Amino acid sequence: MLTDIEIAQAANMLPIQDVAAGLSIDAEDLEFYGKYKAKLPLSLCEKYKDRANGKLILVTAINPTPAGEGKTTVTVGLGEAMQKIGKNAIIALREPSMGPVFGVKGGAAGGGYAQVVPMEDINLHFTGDMHALTAANNLLCAVLDNHMQQGNALSIDPRRILFKRCLDMNDRALRNVVVGLGGKVNGVPREDGFMITVASEVMAILCLASDLEDLKKRLGDILVAYTYDGKPVFARDLDCVGAMTALLKDAIKPNLVQTLENTPALMHGGPFANIAHGCNSVTATKLGLKLADYCITEAGFGADLGAEKFLDIKCRFAGLKPSCIVLVATIRALKYNGGVPKAELGQENVEALKKGIINLQTHIENMQKYGVPAVVAINRFGTDTDAEIAVIEEFCKNMGVEVSLTEVFAKGGEGGRDLAEKVCKTIEEKPSNYRPLYDTDLSIPEKLETIAKEIYRADGVTFTAAAKKSLAEIEALGKDKLPVCVAKTQYSLSDNPALLGKPEGFTLTVRDVRLSAGAGFVVALTGDIMTMPGLPKVPAASKIDVDADGNISGLF
Prior knowledge:
alpha/beta; twelve-stranded mixed beta sheet
């Protein structure tokens, strides 16, 4: 059996200008990054503004488990399958972070015969967007520390600096550090820390900005610190926003690549969904809607995280109206939710499946609260039995949703024909009446209470003393009418990763609340969620190698 990278390396890729030509994009409009990658200028958004929008399809999933769900694989396969049934489709994905690539989760280019290529490039440096974001973020940090070193005219309190440095790598040793050591010439000593680049506010801003001017304004609105007398200090006060924007002038442009079957794919931005808003850029999604009849995008982790943020933050800001939601699950993962150990998931267990299917049921019900019709995609494994499949089909029939057994990992687009047809049928027969879950005029506690009760199914929300203090500061700044982005474990509907299925009788604990004024939302930190992940005992990096000819191996 071939590995993902072996399949990708054997792909028959088209020159990227040929992929672009299929979208009616002239080669003159491409900014080439080699033969198979290109950036699309923002001027295309203006050029195609009068084109009718295509249909927007969101792919999300149940809560992730060690059994795997294959959400990105299904997203890519659905795009390929749309092409198989004669539909004009494009996919819009996030860019991978190198943290998971070298850690435990893996990349974000799909798998098997449903991948985006060139896979090695995409999972590593790609077009340099992550590096540009890291540099822009850390420029602000450097300027801030230099400001204090050079006299501190703004009277910034070094104990109340909110903005952290970042790095696109899992490195737990950098979560909490002390900078400015080594004497007066080396700066003002203070506590600092790093977060992973994909969790930074700069990443969120890039993904929500509409153009360079909007990007610059949002960067200026970043709340950096407070002064000794409690006044806020924003990035614009440090006179480096223009330089930050200059570092991001190319990163804001969407990247065009292709699938193994040459379906066009836009990959742009990559915020994590457990600690950020989990969606690719507004620019790429909006452009995709102008370039094809169907734009298939993905939101990270389970529907309680990525999809909720897509629907309550991204769609609200961008004026997007999804036509259909695809919920990905596997029979193996549902049995895991029913209490089956990972080592026994290959064995038939109908009773565990019936018990664990409540996780899928909850996500379906949650998505229906947004007024968008859903289709269930079961990412099929060879160990799935007829009896187990029958349970899934009967369950979905009773819930009034279409279900499709997909085999895109093994068969590419051909394995997703049924899913593509059912998605198109659902869009035609069940008009979407999308609406956000809550009104932003509610208080922050009221918005969190709504998400916790309606999506997580919690009994309520409690706030620590630190969170209450932060809430008061945000309210004093008049920023309490923004949407809420919850940082929460992806493994459970609750804030406890050990609680599977549909947890009941729990209260969501918010330990801190942070303002991302530039991004335009408030972040609520729950549980033990970290903004800088660590590496596992045996990181994926230990299996990756490159030969004398530059051929990479071990990358999945």
